[in-house]
């Protein structure tokens, strides 16, 4: 066991039931006033997370990076970008988290590096066929003079997935693969040197005391032999997710990599974990990522994408528990993260936009903010009663909506630029957090600076404006998290109960009966003592878009 952990999460298998809160460092809390959040800012605000009642935090990347994709373009995997602080700041943050009983997992980005990484720079300076080029995926182009890309793959962020380099003698040369931005060249994971390098990266952070890793693009590392052409179906999500054999997603070859990493982590004890960001369907296939000798958890994006609808929820919960249960893994649950429209907005949108498009002033989808927040609170109350592990994304405990009217000049997501503005991208869910309603910049930092502009309404959502206020979203999250812990819901088992009509879902977990009304008409409130409710419950009725927890005893 990691000997520095405090009270809450001392069990080796803490991750089976943990509520893990995603900190997006650049938008969480800014200590130095430059408008970009940092590690000292996180350390300063950690007590608020311990008090919220989460078990662990996951930090998005804070490593040395040109920030072309907000840090998912890593130039040095074993150092902290000066924007976020220093390694000593990381150590202080980790020690403080552990003292507070919070586990800390960090982001590992193994599919690609930044083009500023020393290895990629060496590859550019070296000849085709050199060992330096063999760490990435360089190929000769097609066409008489190699002027066409090696295949037809497209970047997740739009445009082609290949960029041609200029060789040292000034002539147009080979092409390199980047499934994301041009500045994010893909590693070649069939190269043992790459594998050994990442074992070193894992050990570097495990030695410092990190409790594990969220693994970025965990379905992308292995590419199909020969890099065959592929045209995604028109309805495929940008990060994959369909069942077809996509030559760059969910290839069998990824699994031996995770078995290898499992061993690396196991040498540090059973409480260090790998959590995969794998957009893979169906869930029975995704379960391969969490076989006993691979990762510990994987994100459940099918759950995130499920509409607020009783039948759809029941089926995703059943499928998840069955699929993950079949390999002895816990299911995870998630509603928001830094890549998707915040669920307080998403659940009130008509029509729902395709995943990955984001939301902006000219989008066809329009939110009803009141309905969105009501459903979001009900959806969270439903999720936090499920057995397994849940992920929360910073700001959802404040009920933050997606920021839709960001000016184009403020946007930073590479997908916005690579699609000529057609995809708004993910900036709208990344706006810095409001902490104190009356402070400049709502208390995000000591100055009013904020790398994305905060909307006028931000003060209304500020943490201090909600703390202690009955019925506020913050107090709802606190009470749900406290009850979940007290009643052992993460460890529990789900038993569906008969329910009042097609829009209602009811289940029992441990001593708690959970009733979710996903429709708009009120339904009768079953007998029992109300422990928590996502909205006002009166006269023995559960209003529409509301979830109630009742004591079954
Ligand atoms: C998934 C991350 O969550 C996203 O933010 C990033 O842009 C891509 N992977 C590429 O690293």
Query: Number of helical runs?
Result: 15
Which second-level CATH architecture of the largest domain applies? Answer: Alpha-Beta Barrel
C-alpha geometry: globular
CATH third-level topology of the largest domain = TIM Barrel
Strand percentage lies at: 15-25%
* Radius of gyration from CA coordinates: 23 Å
How far is the N terminus from the C terminus?
A: 36 Å
Name of the CATH superfamily of the largest domain? Glycosidases
Widest β-sheet, arrangement of strands: 11-10-9-5-2-1-15-12
Ligands bound to this protein structure = 1-deoxynojirimycin
Mean pLDDT: 95
CATH structural class of the largest domain: Alpha Beta
- Class computed from helices, strands and strand pairing: alpha/beta
Largest sheet data: 8 strands, parallel
User: Residue ranges: pLDDT <50 for 5 or more in a row?
Assistant: none
Tell me the number of strands: 22
Instruction: Please give the share of residues in helix.
Output: 25-40%
């Amino acid at each position: 066991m990691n000997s520095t952990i405090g009270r809450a999460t001392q069990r080796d298998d803490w991750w089976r039931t943990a509520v893990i809160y995603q900190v997006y460092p650049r938008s969480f809390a800014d200590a130095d006033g430059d408008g970009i959040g940092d590690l000292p800012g996180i350390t300063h605000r950690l007590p608020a997370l311990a008090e919220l009642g989460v078990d662990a935090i996951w930090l998005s990347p804070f490593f040395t990076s040109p920030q072309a994709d907000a840090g998912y373009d890593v130039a040095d995997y074993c150092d902290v970008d000066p924007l976020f602080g220093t390694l000593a700041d990381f150590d202080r943050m980790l020690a403080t988290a552990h003292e507070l009983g919070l586990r800390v997992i960090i982001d590992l980005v193994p599919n690609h590096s930044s083009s500023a990484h020393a290895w990629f720079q060496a590859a550019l300076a070296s000849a085709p066929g050199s060992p330096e080029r063999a760490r990435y995926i360089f190929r000769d182009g097609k066409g008489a003079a190699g002027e066409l890309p090696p295949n037809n793959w497209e970047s997740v962020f739009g445009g082609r997935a290949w960029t041609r380099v200029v060789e040292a003698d000034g002539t147009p040369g080979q092409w390199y693969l980047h499934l994301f931005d041009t500045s994010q060249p893909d590693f070649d994971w069939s190269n043992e040197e790459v594998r050994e390098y990442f074992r070193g990266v894992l050990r570097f952070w495990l030695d410092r005391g990190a409790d594990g890793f969220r693994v970025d693009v965990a379905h992308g590392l292995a590419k199909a032999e020969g890099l065959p052409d592929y045209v995604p179906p028109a309805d495929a999500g940008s990060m994959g997710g369909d069942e077809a054999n996509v030559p760059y997603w969910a290839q069998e070859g990824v699994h031996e990599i995770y078995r290898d990493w499992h061993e690396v982590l196991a040498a540090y004890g059973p409480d260090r974990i790998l959590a995969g960001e794998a957009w893979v369907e169906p869930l029975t296939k995704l379960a391969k990522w969490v076989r006993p000798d691979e990762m510990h958890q994987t994100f459940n994006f099918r759950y995130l994408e499920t509409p607020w609808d009783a039948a759809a929820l029941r089926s995703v919960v059943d499928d998840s528990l069955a699929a993950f249960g079949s390999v002895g893994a816990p299911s995870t649950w998630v509603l928001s993260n830094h890549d998707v429209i915040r669920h307080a907005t998403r659940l009130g949108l008509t029509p729902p936009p395709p995943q990955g498009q984001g939301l902006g002033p000219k989008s066809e989808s329009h939110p009803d903010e009141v309905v969105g927040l009501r459903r979001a609170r009900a959806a969270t109350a439903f999720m936090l009663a499920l057995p397994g592990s849940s992920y929360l994304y910073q700001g959802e405990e404040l009920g933050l909506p997606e920021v839709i009217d960001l000016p184009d000049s403020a946007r930073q997501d590479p997908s916005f630029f690579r699609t000529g503005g057609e995809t708004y991208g993910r900036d709208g869910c990344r706006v810095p957090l409001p902490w104190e309603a009356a402070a400049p910049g709502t208390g995000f930092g000591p100055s009013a600076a904020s790398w994305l502009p905060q909307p006028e309404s931000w003060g209304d959502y500020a943490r201090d404006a909600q703390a202690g206020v009955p019925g506020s979203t913050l107090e709802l999250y606190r009470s749900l998290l406290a009850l979940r812990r007290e009643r052992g819901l993460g460890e529990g088992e789900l038993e569906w109960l008969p329910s009042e009509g097609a829009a209602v879902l009811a289940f029992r977990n441990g001593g708690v009966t959970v009733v979710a009304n996903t429709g708009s008409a009120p339904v009768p409130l079953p007998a029992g003592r109300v422990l928590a409710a996502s909205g006002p419950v009166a006269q023995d009725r559960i209003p529409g878009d509301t979830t109630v927890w009742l004591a079954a005893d």
